[in-house]
Amino acid sequence: MQHSQVHFLWPPSRTQPILRNDEVHVWSVSLSVADPILQELRGALSNDELLRCQRSPLLQEQNRFIAGRGSLRHILALYLDTEPQVIQFGYGHAGKPFLTNPSHDIRFNISHSGDLALIAVTLGREIGVDVELMSVMPEMTEIANRFFSDQAKTEFLATPTGERVEVFYKCWTEKESISKCTGDGITEEKPLPADDITVFPLSPATGYAASLAIRGPASELHTWHWPHQLPPVDSEHPYPVAAGAFLYCR
Question: For residue 237, what pLDDT band results from cuts at 50, 70 and 90?
Fold first, then answer.
């Protein structure tokens, strides 16, 4: 498998992450990795996940699923102080995954597009993340009219035609992250905004748009690139990268 051509914009973490109550951690993950790493990630998957992977007729999509779900297990294992393969998932409305172990309060969400996945982790609050590889689509205006809130649609339509791609994906990832936070998933065309949901815009890699939604006031946000290992260095805390926050527009 070829190495990812994604240009990551976040630094790698170089120490074990410590998740505090007021924090959100977001990891950018390559879905195109060398075969030895892919096999290691495959070894962390459950039988159900392997069966799900095999349903795809495309080898590239199978490998992306293994890289994403295996990385999710390895990242969560850091916070849970356990082995990746013993983690058990349940699935809520619209297929949103959660941890079935009741002895902790870690919440997480995952999204992937192209060769990139984002994994968001926090404590005690519902969370949703969405990432999209940006490309020009002729049906952008039709999608905006159908799915965007009135204010997001107005923002999109007011943007000059040649500059609409980034605005479209900003609005789309906002909408999707909120839907995933509330658990509605993509079945909700225009999710109702809520006063207790905060949205963070994210820029994880060149050519990608992303958003994070979390219930409650703005938290301290840390973003890293997952290097598929944590090299030992002398540091008291991983590199924090703060990002601004804004409430979803009505």
Answer: very low
Tokens of 65: 């699923």
- CA–CA dist 109, 237 (Å, integer): 23
Name the residue among 194, 140, 192 with its Cα closest to residue 164. 140
Strands 220-226 and 23-30: parallel
Higher pLDDT, 45 or 241: 45
Q: Are 205 and 8 in contact (CB under 8 A)?
A: yes
Spell 101-110 as b/e; 16+ CB within 10 A means b: eeeeeebbbb
CATH homologous superfamily for the domain 23-230: 4'-phosphopantetheinyl transferase domain (3.90.470.20)
234 — pLDDT class (breaks 50, 70, 90): very low
Q: What residues are paired with 246 via a beta bridge?
A: 199
Mean pLDDT in the chain? 86
On whether the CB atoms of residues 44 and 73 are closer than 8 A, the answer is: yes
Residue 196 pLDDT level (bands cut at 50, 70, 90): confident
